[in-house]
Amino acid sequence: MGYIPHNVVIDHNMNVVYTSSGFNQSAIINAIEEALSNLPADNDEDGFDDPEDNCPETYNPDQEDIDQDGMGDVCDICNNASIWILGNLDGNQNQNGLAVIDIMDVLSLVDMLLTGEFGNCAYETANTHVDAHVNVLDVVTLVQMILNGDFNNSFAGGGEGSFTIHHKDDGDLLTISSPEMVSGFQFDVVSSGPTVQSLDGATLPLGWLLDYETKANVTTVLAFDASGTNPRESINLHLDDASIASFENVVVGSASAGEIRVHYSESRQASEIMMPDSPGITRLYPNPFNPLLSVKFSLPFDTPAQVAVYNTLGEQIDVIVPRSTVEAGHYTVYWNAGEQQSGMYFIQIWTPDHVETKKALLVK
Fold it and tell me: Which distant-in-sequence residues (6+ apart) come within 8 Å of 270 by Cβ?
């Protein structure tokens, strides 16, 4: 039978903080004082300990937090109940004190995204897409909210798309496309990238708006369908001296405000470089790689084509170029294997008359 000590101090979590078979008054008092000092306080006496209380200095037993920002309504400096509600970025109200959400809020959001400067309360109202980021998806969502009178948080139809630089004799062309229809996009251009002034006067679909802002050697470009009724499968922008490496933080939104996952690629006119006799992969670089692999391939004629990735079991794990008709030319596409494990992978180009596979080693 085990011996049970005579002196035990247990804290509020029922953890033993002191135990001894002998009596030591000083040690026992110190243990009790330490346990008391670790007790959670409830300064406003609303029944919620301060670490869990969303307004620890203000009595609020209901813990209401309408915007779910972690700060209770009674102590939030932003009136999220009637003024700074979702979408009302400028805090405008009508004669009855109700929030007014209109095109001015859309323009305010665009300006904030370009400059990176949000007001104290505006940022809380900007995340209309209700995710972890504020970007062009929130712009598309806000436009749809104004048109439909309510937020549609389903955001279906993000799908797949492409972000392609076409190098041509008369300049470079950026094409953003998706079968799901594009309603907005944004991206950053680094200082050594293309001249964004070529975007001035860009030809856009009817109802679309485009703007850009340069700050700290980075230019943020944002464009969207302000009409909310004219999404397009493809948007073309003329840029000088463009390359995929010049672009960062690309976000593309569908007509339903879903995020379109884009595949990056570059192409050159077939006349610029001698063409091979048959379709094929010309280079995998670097190899080994981690985690980005560039895949160069060439097509001597227009043909349906697909570039896909397979594991050692022969399972297709990703598609870099979805199966579609591709014009003759030289292409560079990119595969991001950040979510894959180290090992050997097989990059395959398929056309109706030709299939070629090459190995690539991922080393993390």
Answer: 300, 327, 328, 329, 330
Structural domains in the chain, sorted by start? 7-37 (no CATH), 160-268 (2.60.40), 273-362 (2.60.40.1930)
The token pair that represents 242 in the structure block: 């463009």
Residue 247 pairs in a beta bridge with: 189
- The reply to whether omega before 291 is within 30° of 0 (cis) is yes
**pLDDT tens digits, residue range 21-36?**
666 777 777 777 776 6
Strand, coil or helix: 345:
strand
Distances 326 to 176, 190, 257, 283 between C-alpha atoms, Å? 15, 29, 28, 19
Q: Is 314 left (phi over 0), alpha (psi -120 to 50) or beta?
A: left
What are 229-250's pLDDT values in tens digits? 999 999 999 887 788 888 999 9
Q: Are strands 303-310 and 261-269 parallel, antiparallel or unpaired?
A: unpaired
- SS3 of 360, please? strand
